[in-house]
Amino acid sequence: MIIVPGEILLDVFPNYRRIGGAPFNFAYHLHRFGLPVRFVSRVGRDADGEYICSRLKALNFDDRFIQTDAVHPTGRVNVVMEDDGSHRFEILPDTAYDHIVLDDMFPDTVKNDNRCQYGRKERPVGDFGDLRNAGANVRTAGNEDFEPLVEMIYFGTLVQRTPESYSRVQQFLAGRPASATTFCDINLRPVTYPDGVITRSLEQADILKLNDQEFFFLQDLFYLQHLEPDAFATWLMNNFGIEWIALTRGEKGSRLYTRLGIRETDGITSANVVDTVGAGDAYAAVLAFGYLRRWPVEKILSAASRFAADICGISGAVPEDAEFYKPYLTI
For residue 163, which phi and psi values (nearest 5 degrees)? Predict the structure, then answer.
């Protein structure tokens, strides 16, 4: 099972609106890939919240962990398209997802599961430095009540933008089971974060995904602008105990830093770019999918780049047609 706490909101484009939020996009893709996902978020008791919930039901997406807030509005982001094809975000402050409740997300049977004998940062090092049991999560006719092992927890930074939400997310991560690999998508947005959010998030990360701008931001944050990119990535891995760092570079491709070396792939450009919103989330989803399925690294990078390019060919961050995913279920 993959647990994904974070924002769900409306991306409002000049001529249409779509459900968005990096954690939702990530969770939705993995759901379509057939993985068990527990997405935890919060919407307002308002028209936007009702719209989101109705769309989730229409998409057959599990909404059991979508909370309702009677005080705060549903999250909303105005997506402003620039002349060069890029975009910027205008993000509504103090919304329902800033008040997500994360209590009791780890059942005792999962939290105390002793099948995973290594805690975080103690796993054997390698491209796949963990002890996942390939059969541990299979639901069979005789164990309908079986709680699947928590294999991965995804988290980002926007959902930690207030001191209260930052504290809740960090407490949630601190209580995770030893079986869980943590996937951190820095995903910086033009908001003010509490002191310590970035550093604490890096400390919690097993896998880190970021783009060029976020990479340079971290170099500035730690006063290490003088380091070459590869040296800085190595510093991050060693300083924070990170297993993988995925650096996306748009049309320049992507680079994956692991304990066994550096792998990279060329960029893939969609033949018909509609918008680039959600491309990074699509890449992150395939990265996680390939990691959990133990794909060779080269296969992960190639598939992630292709999927991100395909997402650029549709409007919004997630396709509603399940047929869109079929090519990626057979590779």
Answer: -55, -35
How far CA 59 is from CA of 32, 246, 298, 327, in Å, comes to 10, 30, 32, 19
Alpha-carbon gap, residue 227 to 259, rounded angstroms: 19
Contact 82, 92 (CB under 8 A): no
Helix (H) or strand (E) holding 200: helix 197-204
- To 5 degrees, how large is the angle CA 147–CA 153–CA 155? 145
- Nearest 5°: phi and psi at 309? -65, -40
Contact by Cβ (8 Å): 91, 223: no
Q: Could you report the average pLDDT of every consecutive run of 10 residues in the chain (331 residues)? A: 95 84 96 94 96 93 95 91 73 95 70 42 46 37 58 96 96 92 89 90 97 94 96 97 94 91 81 74 95 94 90 78 82 70
Query: How high is the pLDDT of residue 273?
Result: 73
> Do 42 and 63 contact (CB within 8 A), yes or no?
no
Contact 184, 209 (CB under 8 A): yes
